[in-house]
Amino acid sequence: MSHSLRVIFAGTPEFAAAALAAIHEAGFAVPLVLTQPDRPAGRGMKLQASPVKRYAEEHGIAVAQPPSLRRNGKFPAEAAAAIDQLRATPHDVMVVAAYGLLLPQEVLDIAPHGCINIHASLLPRWRGAAPIHRSIEAGDAETGITLMQMDAGLDTGAMISEVRMPIHDTDTTATLHDRLAAAGAKLIVDALIELERSGKLAATPQPAEGATYAEKIGKHEAALDWRRPAAELARQIRAFDPFPGGASTLDATVLKVWSATPTDAPRKAEPGTIVDVSPEGVVVTCGEGALRITQLQKPGGKRLPVRDFLAGSTLAAGQRFDLAQPQ
User: Fold this and answer.
1) How many Cα atoms within 13 Å fall on the side-chain side of residue 26?
2) Binding-site entries for (6S)-5,6,7,8-tetrahydrofolate
3) Which domain holds residue 159?
C-alpha cells in the first residue's frame, strides 16, 4: 500500500538500514536519504558506502552525504548546501537512526513534524553512541528501543513509544543488535502509520533520574583485566563481539578471546593463570571465580573453537596471561 507521508531518512550502519528498508517497503515515500560520507574499510582500506547508502542506491533513492550539518563547524559550505537541500525537498517528517552527525536546532525545525529518533535503549538509560554494547557490559536484564522526538540535547528528547526485550546470558552485541534493529524497524513503521492517521504523536518527557551515558567503544577496551570478577569479564567479551573483542597477552602474543563463560576456580592461583586446558575450554583464574574460554584467535588467524585452536597451538596449565594491557 502507499502512504501520503513523506519521510527524509538519516542513518548510517546496518541498524539504520533495517529501519530504512521497513519504511520504504511499507510504502512511505522517501525523497532523500542522509548518510555519512564513504569511509575506508577492510583490508585494502578502500572507500566503502554505508549500509544505508547501499540500500538507497539499490532502490533509486536520492542520497546526500554531508560531512557536517553545522554551519559553524569545520565544513560550513557543505553544511549550508545540505541544509538548503533539506529545505528544498518537500517532506513531512525526518527519521534518524544511528546517523552519527549532530543535528543543530535549525535542522530539527525543518520538517513539519520534526525529527523522530530510533534509539537502541530504554531511555534515559544509555543515551549516547554505544547503547547496545554498554547494556550487555553492565549486565542489564533488559533493553529495548525508544522512539524519541529529537531536541538539541544528546538523546534527551520526549519519548513517543518503546518496546522492551530481555538480554539473554548468551547475547553478544551482534545478536542483540539484530533483534533490536528488527524491533526498531517495526516500531518506526507503526509510529509513521499513526502519525499519518492522526496528524500527531503524543510524547512524554524523559524522567530526570536514571540517565546514563553510553560512551563510544574504544579499541583499548579489549584488554582483559584478570583481576576483575569472571562474571564481569564474560560480559565484557560478549559486549565487545564483534568489536573490539577481548584481548590478552600470553608469552608476548596477543590472543583475542571471543567467547567465555564464568565458572568456579578449580584451585587457587594468581589471576590470569591457566589452570585447566581441554577441548571443552581453557580455564583461567580471575579476581573472583574463573573464566572458561571457548573461542580464541591468534594474530593473523581466524576465530576458532578451543578444540581447533589447540590443534595448532599449545596452551598448558601454569601459563599465565599478562596483567599488563596488550597494546
Assistant:
1) 23
2) 121-124
3) 6-214
